[in-house]
Amino acid sequence: MLPIAAMASVGVGVGTGKIEVPEAMKAGLIYDLPSFAVINTGDEASEYGVSVEYNTTQPQKMPPREWLSFQPSTFYLEPGKAQLVQVRLTLPLKGAEPGEYFAYLEGHPAKKASVAGETSVGVAAATKLYFSVAPANFFVGVYYRLTSLYKLYYPWSLVLLGAIAFVIVVLLIRKFFSFNIGISVKKKEE
Questions:
Q1: How far apart are the C-alpha atoms of 12 and 109, rounded to whole Å?
Q2: Which of 45, 43, 35 is nearest to 14 (CA)?
Q3: What pLDDT, in 10s, does the model give residues 103-144?
Q4: Which of 53, 144, 150, 151 could pair with 29 in a Cys bridge, judged by C-beta atoms 3.0 to 4.6 Å apart?
Q5: Is 41:11 a contact under the CB 8 Å cutoff?
């Protein structure tokens, strides 16, 4: 009896070559960057994931991985199918050095448990991300973060601001004005 080898390939591709943000980004803001597609180019269904990777010899700064988040970050793809991945960049209030940044947004099959005697080769495809950060101080960063959160959670942020304004008005009225509302019965004079 001879062993028969079944060959299947897992492949990956991305639908966007690069994401380049032309204007300088501001510390404290939350940015929704353009999406990119991860494509299963192989002939085997697999679990896929996305991550941030770097070229250690690049002249640009490397954005920390925690600045970037993906939705979804892992997903299952049938052969020939694609998944659109949303990219969000959250710049911290402080610690975002001004300058040019570069990273790879990499799509790759999830790692499989290796079987004794088999060798696996990792495959990946990446979209290049270019952006720059403008100089800012902490207080400007706080302002930008608040405006960013307002836009991100609109219209609920408007409801929250309205509730806060209502509470402030009620507290001010109670502090400076006194109201006595009551019902009394008048006695008939005889």
A1: 7
A2: 35
A3: 999 999 886 545 555 555 568 888 999 999 988 777 777 777
A4: 144
A5: yes
Nearest C-alpha neighbor of 47 from the set 84, 74, 87: 74
Q: How far is CA 75 from CA 15, 72, 107, 136, 140, in A?
A: 16, 7, 11, 37, 37
Residue 156 is classified by DSSP as: H
The CA-to-CA distance between both ends of the chain, in Å, stands at 124
Q: Which residues, listed in sequence order, are joined to residue 74 by a DSSP beta bridge? A: 49
Angle between helices 138-152 and 156-176 (to 10 degrees): 110
Answer positive or negative: Cα dihedral of 128, 34, 149, 140. positive
Q: How far is the CA of 116 from the CAs of 112, 113, 123, in angstroms?
A: 12, 10, 20
**pLDDT tens digit string along 156-178?**
888 888 999 999 998 888 888 87
Residue linked to tokens 């009620």: 170
Backbone angles phi, psi at 103, to 5 degrees: -155, 160
Q: Which of 105, 104, 110, 103 is nearest to 40 (CA)?
A: 110
**Residue 83 in contact with residue 75, Cβ under 8 Å?**
yes
70 - beta bridge partners?
87
Which tokens is 116 given?
């004794």
CB 157 within 8 A of CB 149: yes
